[in-house]
Design goal:
With 458 residues, this protein is α+β, with helices and mostly antiparallel strands. It has four domains: 2-44 and 159-197, no CATH class; 51-156; 223-312, Helix Hairpins (Orthogonal Bundle), CATH 1.10.287; 319-453, Heat Shock Protein 90 (2-Layer Sandwich), CATH 3.30.565.10. The chain has twelve helices and eleven strands. The protein has a five-stranded mixed β-sheet with strand order 6-8-9-11-10, covered by helices on one side. The protein has a four-stranded antiparallel β-sheet with strand order 2-1-4-3, covered by helices on one side. It is rod-shaped. Residues 38-47 and 415-419 have low confidence and may be disordered.
Length: 458
């Protein structure tokens, strides 16, 4: 229950219930003020009598009968007396000759002379209509003339209705203020929620030195507070996972370094013994076996070197020094050292290198390693095609160095197929130098492009 009372749902429900209570309270207050004002002025019984049309009619007739033989002055006093009770009332006096003798607050024009026909018409129009009209003969005798009382019928409405008619604008203004208050409170409520969510979003985007999110202070225990706490728990788990990953990475690097050292020591001895055996007088089969052994030693040494390079690249420990260089000239010099190898293996070699207009920003050691890995892959996997082509390609967007072979493609297995570490090293080194590369491989051969994109003119 305590958890629910601290939730955002409970807070907003409280806002809605408070607004509904204020609406009801406003109506009740207006009604109580209306009835209280009426009763405070007249008293409860007098207020009921004053608003009773029947009692008004009886009292008017009684006052008219007491005016038998009364003068004009007494009639004026009677009108003034009723005017004090009913401020919106109007009255007039017609004498026995049908002449209009006196009038008080009459709305509209009255004829100076009243004929029997006009009098009958007047009574017919006023009967049951608006305003409430009472006609009484002076002294109870029609020969003395008559007096007329007119009161707007809305004065007979209940006090609350009268109060609403008189002060409806005040009630409407009060309701408008309550609605405005509800809107303002709701706006502040949701603005606070949005502010906290934006703060949480900013916290998710912040990173520490390890590129991990930073925890956030939890100030409340509502739904957003629970979300913030969950985020903090996730940050703790990420940091712990990062710590374990770094420890495992360190152990892996140490293991590979030690393994590489341990392998190279016996490999050096094997290489020395192989060299000694090769100097002996061997049969053709023996010489062929020694040659295969030498090739295996070279391959093992290259695999160890690739493994070390891959480990260093993964740990961002491989030194990178970018400098402007003539990429075409560098490739030509690298191919010069590889040309005898491909010639010995019977490859048809086609070299078509045209100078680039722009120099490349690259690391010569890294670029040399990329070229060596690509040529080594061609030598190992594309011997069936016995074809190597290296050329340049230039467009408005990029300059490229292209390596083409006519082997069976990377999807087809070969006796020299490995784990793909060489191409992984190519990928990491190319992207590390902000270059790009593309590779297309099929049954008719493989094409690899090393791309250097040109800067667009400002």
């Amino acid at each position: 229950m305590k958890k629910f009372s601290q939730s955002l749902q409970a807070k907003y429900m409280l806002i809605i219930l408070t607004a509904l209570f204020l609406f009801q309270a406003a109506y009740l207050i207006v009604a109580m003020l209306a009835m209280g004002l009426e009763e405070s002025i007249l008293g409860k019984e007098d207020a009921d009598e004053q608003n009773d049309p029947k009692r008004i009619e009886e009292q008017w007739h009684a006052d008219a009968e007491e005016l038998e033989g009364a003068s004009a002055e007494s009639i004026r006093r009677l009108f003034a007396q009723w005017k004090k009770q009913y401020r919106d009332a109007s009255m007039f006096w017609i004498d026995e000759n049908g002449r209009l003798m006196e009038q008080l607050d009459v709305k509209g024009e009255l004829p100076a002379d009243w004929t029997p026909a006009y009098t009958a018409k007047f009574i017919k129009e006023r009967y049951g209509g608006e305003p409430f009209t009472v006609i009484s003969f002076i002294g109870g005798d029609e020969r003395n003339g008559f007096i007329v009382l007119e009161i707007p019928r809305n004065l007979f409405n209940p006090p609350f209705v009268q109060m609403t008619e008189k002060y409806g604008w005040f009630l409407g203004l009060g309701l408008l203020l309550i609605i405005s208050l509800f809107i303002v409170v709701s706006f502040l409520f949701f603005r606070g929620i949005r502010k906290r969510l934006m703060h949480l979003q900013e916290a998710m985007e912040r990173r520490d030195l390890d590129n991990l999110p930073i925890g956030i202070d939890v100030q409340k225990s509502d739904e957003i507070g629970q979300l913030e706490q969950t985020f903090n728990d996730m940050v703790v788990e990420l940091k712990e996972s990062k710590r374990r990953e770094q420890e495992e990475e360190q152990l892996r690097r140490e293991l590979i370094a030690n393994l590489s050292h341990d392998l190279r020591t016996p490999l050096t001895k094997i290489n020395a013994q192989t060299y000694s055996i090769a100097k002996e007088d061997l049969s053709p089969e023996g010489k062929q076996a020694v040659k295969a052994l030498e090739n295996s030693i070279v391959n093992i040494d290259r695999l160890i070197e690739n493994l070390m390079s891959y480990t260093l690249l993964m740990a961002s420990k491989h030194k990178l020094e970018l400098k402007e260089m003539d990429a075409v000239r560098f490739v030509r010099e690298s191919l010069a050292s590889w040309y005898p190898v491909f010639e010995k293996e019977g490859f048809e070699t086609v070299i078509d290198l045209q100078p680039f207009e722009e120099k490349w920003l690259a690391d010569p050691i890294w670029l040399g390693r990329i070229i060596d890995n690509l040529l080594q892959n061609i030598l190992r996997h594309a011997r069936d095609g016995s074809y190597l082509e290296v050329k340049t390609e230039s467009t408005e967007a990029y300059d490229a160095i292209v390596f083409i072979d006519q082997g069976k493609g990377l999807k087809n297995s070969s006796a020299e197929k490995g784990a793909g570490i060489g191409l992984s090293i190519v990928d990491m080194m190319v992207k590390g130098m902000k270059l790009d590369w593309e590779m297309e491989s099929g049954e008719e051969g493989t094409t690899v492009k090393i791309l250097a994109f040109k800067e667009k003119p400002q």
